[in-house]
Amino acid sequence: MKPMVGRNVSHANNKTKRRFLPNLQETSLLSDSLGRTIRLRLTVKALRTVEKQGGLDAFLRNASVDQLSDRARRLKRLIEGRAEA
Questions:
Q1: Total domain count for the chain?
Q2: Is 79 exposed, middle or buried (0-12, 13-18, 19+ CB in 10 A)?
Q3: CA-CA distance, 55 to 73, in Å (whole number)?
Q4: What span, in angstroms and rounded, lies between the C-alpha atoms of 80 and 47?
Q5: Is 68 inside any structural domain?
Q6: What 3-state class would DSSP assign to 59?
Q7: What DSSP letter does each residue of 33-45 carry, written as one string?
Q8: Which residues make beta-bridge pairs with 29?
Q9: How do residues 7-61 score in pLDDT, each as one tens digit?
Q10: What pTM, to 2 d.p., does this model score?
Q11: Euclidean distance between CA atoms 39 and 27, whole angstroms
């Protein structure tokens, strides 16, 4: 996610630019197929999606490659390789 741009508007209708930053959290998630915890910086919305889909492995299997970061793509390949074996 990228920062969004907007404006603060005062009571006197003065407008100043501001940025809306994504809510990033450093978290440790357990990968069942790799058997270890993985530290990632995720938005809270992504964390909720991971929990809804049943964990990190299921989330990465269902995610499209173009939406993932380079590190998440590597993790996806590792998890898919372990699932095949």
A1: 1
A2: buried
A3: 16
A4: 20
A5: yes
A6: helix
A7: TTTEEEEEEEEHH
A8: 38
A9: 999 999 999 999 999 999 999 999 999 999 999 999 999 999 999 999 999 999 9
A10: 0.76
A11: 6
